[in-house]
Design goal:
Elements: H1 2-9, E1 16-19, E2 24-26, H2 31-35, H3 39-57, E3 63-67, E4 70-72, H4 74-81, E5 84-88, E6 94-95, H5 107-116, H6 120-128, E7 132-133, H7 135-140, E8 146-148, H8 153-165, H9 172-188
Parallel strand pairs: 1-3, 2-4, 3-5, 4-6, 5-8
Antiparallel strand pairs: 6-7
Length: 202
């Protein structure tokens, strides 16, 4: 989070790249931890998560998820809100398995999926069947922009962000405005938690 805020005010920053270490990009939310917390803590946690996701979705420079391994649940939603998604060609699943753990999506998470997934058939397969995609399958389903060898993952992602800016660059404030119009305003209007655990619109 500190790095993100530093990059926010440092106007020499040209892109934001997310990646992981080892065989996982991200497993998403620590549900075991969340289940042990009192409702005020859960609310605070999800408010912070919502703020973070919206910040990524509206960040004023290109954002790239350099997916180094498995991306499950919220760990797959983070790449979805990025501008570009690149995955290594090694082992790894891209999946939203919530239906298999009986965890329905709230309106906020559903909005991310509808906004950033390529077509209704892919949404159906990811959400209703919990389909697990290999890198090549995810690329074919247009969930990814590229699949590259592991050693090229971060360099390729950096180059992709650089190329997206073009020769003359793009004004940061204009990019933030455009992203807010496309994503931010709609995401802010959605609940990230359900009313039954004592929340209203966040």
């Amino acid at each position: 989070m500190y790095c993100q805020y530093y990059m926010d005010w440092n106007e020499s920053t040209k892109a934001l790249i997310f990646t992981g270490i080892g065989k996982f990009f991200s497993n998403g939310i620590d549900l075991n931890w969340v289940s042990t917390q009192h409702p005020p803590v859960v609310r605070q946690y999800f408010m912070a998560l919502k703020s973070f996701i919206i910040r990524v979705a509206t960040f004023p420079v290109p954002t790239v998820a350099a997916i180094n391994g498995h991306a499950f649940a919220a760990g797959a939603l983070l790449p979805l809100v990025c501008d570009f998604r690149v995955m290594h060609s090694g082992k790894g699943w891209f999946s939203l398995p919530e239906i298999h753990i009986k965890l329905p999506f709230t309106p906020f998470f559903s909005e991310i999926i509808e906004l950033k997934s390529p077509n209704p058939q892919v949404i159906r397969d990811m959400v209703l069947w919990g389909t697990r995609y290999t890198p090549d399958e995810a690329l074919k389903a247009s969930l990814l922009d590229a699949v590259v060898p592991t050693q090229d993952l971060v360099p390729f992602s950096c180059d992709l962000a650089k190329r997206s800016l073009g020769k003359n660059g793009i004004d940061r404030s204009m990019m933030a405005t455009m992203k807010n119009d496309l994503y931010g305003n709609r995401l802010r209007s959605k609940n990230i938690l359900r009313d039954e655990i004592g929340t209203s619109k966040l």
